[in-house]
Protein: AraC family transcriptional regulator
Organism: Achromobacter arsenitoxydans SY8
Amino acid sequence: MQRSAIAGVQAVAARSGRTFARHTHDQFGIGVLRQGAQASHSGRGPVQAGPGYVITVNPGEVHDGAPIGGGVRAWQMLYLDPEVVADAAADIWACWPGGGSRQFEFEHPAQDRPALARDLLALYAHATGGAPALACGELLLRVLAQAGGPRGAAPPLAPRHAVPGAIRHARGLIDDDPAAVLTLADLAGACGLSRFQVLRAFARATGLTPHAYQTQRRLQLARQLIRQGASLADAAAQGGFSDQSHMTRLFVRAYGVSPGRYALAAGRA
């Protein structure tokens, strides 16, 4: 079990050849089988999962698990408290008729969905790596929207006429202070939309998620500070990065040059 930065979410990584007897959890579980294969009997029928498969379990669902072929299998799982899932589901399906009152569930116990697996592994890395709340919140909503819902209901889009002005407010919050610690709830409050609607509408309007947009604005601020003569440590701190190495990694990824070399080229080092 690894430390998780997301309240109400536990992160577990395992590698085992053990056969698990039938049991239940009081949380939602969703993960990715990283190695090997597994057969299990779940409340949704017998299933088999191979490498890269997304595996899920609902609270109270009786299930077991055994490696196929007598080998070992490895997996990474996130266990989410029901309150966390209920809060996210009510937000995602806020505009769906009866969505807020319908019970969320994972429909498929095992499925081969590479895009969902990538988002889920990214969420796991964010949770265990202490990523910003904005990034964790985005991925959590995306994962749950893809993986389940109230009787398979599709998440509704925000009314298009409400989007441009609302997203300007959200973008303005980031532009006014790129280093500020913001959550999707902060942006949703400024927009008058749900968190999930903000996530989808922001990406549609700007081509970036709110966290990706904030990261770009922070990098632009850091470059400006470096050009003005700030030290790299000060540029990282004032730019909203957790530390100088964090800024450096993102700086190189975005611009192909380190902040130190950028400072030299700007005549500031």
Summary: The domain at 9-136 is CATH 2.60.120.10 (Jelly Rolls).
